[in-house]
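Obj.: predict assembly geometry.
Materials: sequence records (below).
Method: joint structure prediction, all chains together.
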Amino acid sequence: MPEAATIVKNLLRWYLTEARELPWRQNRDPYGIWVSEIMLQQTQVKTVIPYWERWMKRLPDVDRLARARETTVIKLWEGLGYYSRARNLQRAAQMIQNEHKGCFPSDYEALLALPGVGPYTAGAVSSIAFGQPRPIVDGNVIRVLTRVDGIRESTKLSQTIRELWSRSESLVRFASELWRPGRNVCGDFNQSLMELGATVCLPRQPLCCDCPLRRCCRARAEGMIEVIPNLGARKKMIARMFIAVVVRRTGRYLVRQRSAGEINGGLWEFPNVELTSQDPSGAVWLDSGMGLDPSKLSALGEVKHSITNNRITLKVYCSDVSPDYCVMEEAGEWLEASELERYAFTAAHRKIVRRAINENGR
DNA sequence: TAAACGTGGGT
DNA sequence: TACCCAAGTTT
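Observations (raw structure tokens):
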């Protein structure tokens, strides 16, 4: 295995000149760094940047987040996915107010005790915001370290992941001994590991010629870059079809809120149902469920999206109904177009809002 | 331990 | 198009 000194020194030097300027890197505010780390879970930097900017403008500190309305928090998160992250963020802020007197905890165990903070995030915040020598293992670190060390075992094995934590730990410990005035070597080293994975040591066609570790990388030396990391098989995607309908009555639109406990709980959507062999076109649902005449609908096309391992196609229709129309089956709310903007919709249904209302100027 | 949890970027 | 997969955590 390459020596820690080689890896750490080359990465720290590289990071000095190649680190991207990201908004949450402008200072060491633990709150801003924590928010960025939660947003970045399973989400790319490019996607996060505008969300982080808006969030920090609206909820600039722990106190403001703790006191915010949950609807505000979810609206700020709209489109990012994994909405429990946003709710946990607020719960954690309230814990910081109540159990830490509003002072952001620097203790690793205290960080780990916050909802939504696991081993990765606790390590990231304690190293980046507080300069502590805590290891991190995320998707980038898995890729970089398995390649550098030439680890061919499946990353699905808990033994493999344990080894990576151990390696990450010894590396950041080495970094901590390189203390420099005015530099956070632990935070910089951990970020350099992820930065390399995000910009150079890419999943496919990595830019090995630009890599500061190219001379010590075992996977490169052994021609194994294409098969390391050994990630194992993915779950297959399941195709599903839904029908959704935009019902408009005297300038208002019928929407409903998804119940807590189901996927995307608490978010808003237009009435919709999955197409089955019982009702393959959705005509039964439209007629008996919604009280609409399927022949009087106008088609708005299809919206495609994926949620976890479901690949979903939504067939979207629009229907203008008379002032005395009322829904039989489900409780919903009638919202004006301007209100649709203020409510948090699921990503797929936000696309419908744009297509059906905004772009058509109705 | 494995599955659930969302969405969009990139090839 | 059809994948892959992203600064993971929770149950």
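Conclusions so far: The first helix of chain A runs from residue 4 to 18.
To do: check interface contacts against the pulldown list.
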